[in-house]
Design brief:
about 350 residues; mainly alpha; MetI-like fold; 13 helices; about 65% helix
Length: about 350
């Protein structure tokens, strides 16, 4: 049979009673979300980063529970394991690493370093997560209003962005720390002796200084979305401004918002560590990665492990979040070169 004859035969209807296999029926359509997940799973580096981030989040959530059930001991002292003649440095190599103290002990106090780092991850994650949510919410709302409204509203929000970016963030955090923490200690009941005032101060200042870049990004996205047909249709149907903002435009912004969230989280984790190192963040005995690093610098030569392990943990967390953000951005963009 020639090729032309086979083509003619395929065009002819099948005889009555003959079942023809439908090869197209097995081809199922996929939503953009499923396609993005498929692209993300193919990126091995992003999957590794996702596993590390998920492990970090789960460990941070479980830390207070493990402390309550006396599984980890971030405040237990072990003075007998320290060398008093050397200024309280733990006995043994790498800060007294044993099977009971896998990362060694802290100098001067003898507390278990693994327990303090594990418990400190909870406070670092809580501060970074809350500050990220504050910055994302403010930046997204103002970006939508600025991009959709235009005119004088757009100009005012644009000047707010410029003014906020002009302030030296680190200097403001240091200059206002004493006043801000004292104010929150008076406002929050029963918080004079706990880390809550310092945590609230860090969250508000990081969030209030972190929204301008997000607002500019969202504004650029809204400028193109507001010209689409479904927005015009909603206008013609008499939709209110709030419905246009949060029912029509906001659902189309979840991809850039998600990417920005995964990129701003590591920045705030690093910022919390930097503020703790500068003495602005949560103070001891409550552990965070920042104040552990601050104390470990004094023992960088006498007890290198005490400095190395917190720095390595911070580096792994920040790099993993950055790789996860890049992977999500590539997965959501079909044109991206992976």
């Amino acid at each position: 049979m020639t090729q032309s004859e086979s083509q003619i035969e395929l065009l002819e209807p099948p005889p009555v009673g003959v079942v023809v296999e439908d090869k197209v029926a097995g081809v199922a359509g996929q939503s953009p979300t499923r396609l993005a997940l498929g692209r993300f799973r193919k990126d091995r580096l992003s999957m590794i980063a996702f596993v590390v981030v998920a492990f970090y989040v789960v460990a941070a959530i479980l830390a207070p529970i493990l402390v309550k059930f006396d599984v980890i001991h971030p405040t237990a002292l072990n003075p007998t394991l320290l060398n008093v003649d050397l200024g309280g440095v733990p006995n043994g190599a790498w800060g007294g690493m044993t099977w009971h103290h896998l990362l060694g002990l802290e100098p001067r106090t003898g507390t278990d370093l693994l327990s303090r780092l594990w418990y400190g991850m909870t406070f670092s994650l809580t501060i970074a997560l809350t500050a990220s949510v504050v910055a994302i919410v403010i930046g997204t709302v103002l970006g939508i209003i600025s991009g959709f409204s235009g005119g004088i509203v757009d100009a005012v929000i644009g000047r707010m962005v410029d003014v906020t970016l002009s302030f030296p963030q680190t200097l403001m955090l240091l200059a206002l720390s004493a006043t801000g923490v004292a104010l929150f200690a008076k406002i929050l009941p029963g918080s004079q002796s706990d880390p809550l005032p310092n945590a609230v101060y860090e969250v508000l200042l990081l969030g209030l200084f972190g929204w301008p870049g997000i607002a500019r990004l969202i504004r650029g996205q809204v400028l193109s979305i507001r010209e689409r047909e479904f927005v015009d249709a909603a206008r013609l149907l008499g939709a209110s401004r709030s419905r246009l903002y949060f029912k029509e435009i906001l659902p189309n912004l979840w991809a850039p918002v998600l990417v920005q969230f995964t990129l701003i989280m590591p920045a705030y984790i690093s910022a919390e560590a930097a503020l703790g190192y500068l003495g602005v963040g949560i103070h001891v005995p409550t552990p965070t990665i920042g104040n552990i690093l601050k104390d470990s610098v004094n023992y960088s030569q006498a007890d290198f492990g005490y400095f190395f392990f917190p720095a390595l943990l911070l580096a792994i967390i920040v790099v993993s979040f950055n790789l996860l953000g890049d992977g999500i951005g590539d997965a959501l963009d079909p044109k991206a070169d992976r």
